[in-house]
Here is the input.
Amino acid sequence: MKGKNWREALIERVKPYRFRYDEPLAGYTSFRIGGPADLLVEINTRDELERLVSHCEREGIPWLLLGRGSNVLIKDQGLGGVVLHLGPDFGRIAVDGVHVRAGAAAPLALVAETAARHGLSGLEFASGIPGSLGGGIFMNAGAYGNEMKDVVVSAEVYQPGEGIISLTKEGLELGYRTSRLQRSGGILLEALLQLTPGEEESIRAKMKALNAKRRAKQPLEYPSAGSVFKRPEGAYAGRLIEEAGLKGKTVGKAQVSPKHAGFIINLGGATARDVLTLIEEVRTEVYQRTGYWLEPELRILGRE
Ligand SMILES: Cc1cc2nc3c(=O)[nH]c(=O)nc-3n(C[C@H](O)[C@H](O)[C@H](O)COP(=O)(O)OP(=O)(O)OC[C@H]3O[C@@H](n4cnc5c(N)ncnc54)[C@H](O)[C@@H]3O)c2cc1C
Here is the structure.
């Protein structure tokens, strides 16, 4: 990063919607864990986004986009450079026939709710996923036999160095908890989804049933980042962890949930170090007992 006044220079150039220096990030994550960002910037237009990212790229300033922070573990030392947040104008949702066009910052639950209100089926699975549309497509989020891939038609993406590009569903390369965005560094701006006509009442009944199932099985009463590990081929991470006798295993204030072994919960005041140590202990133990090496699903971010 060039010069000690790089933050002032960036603010001057980008004129973002909102910004904060040395902002603790715990409050921006569902885990309630994470050290400070050197600079947190909220932008509200595509123009601000282009100016910010191209300035950072040119000046060698690291940047990272955070969605609703429900699939990340931010280290205790925080994040160097700029953490970028999309403002309210990126959260718009519009319905046209069987199509829903929504901005990246729109909460998935709100997109699902809007679809239900218009008698559109296909997003019931997403109504209990606490992320944003952008994070949902970046992760190809899924639950109960469905995933974002089933409903996405196309997306507009800001690709640093190229500008705004349109990608079809195929171009987004959506796979199990993966997408092209994880490899390209592109920022999803908005997406077009295609749903099917249905009865509002039965759509809502399905959403209610799935969310009741979630509440019964998942430790939603504690901060977490959802499932910590990806599903290994031919097995379930939660089951392997449970069979290894690790339910309830605790490091500091981080615990393998006694309710759902696939979740690590924050008992209150857990550090990222607690969670990372627990993740490594769980992986090692599961590997020794079963031969499966679990890969984290959550994104581990931040400086050492
Ligand atoms: C209680 C709980 C239950 C959950 N249940 C499920 C579930 O059933 N199924 C499931 O798949 N997940 C689940 N999750 C995980 C999480 O909600 C999803 O992965 C969600 O899609 C993440 O979205 P986000 O906006 O929070 O992303 P963040 O956590 O903010 O970011 C995750 C990654 O996406 C990137 N990103 C975010 N927005 C964009 C964008 N616009 N463009 C490019 N990159 C972007 C970030 O840079 C980061 O690398 C659960 C989490 C919790 C806490």
Remarks:
- The CA atoms of residues 148 and 210 lie 16 Å apart.
- The chain is about 30% helix and 30% strand.
- The chain has a mean pLDDT of 96.
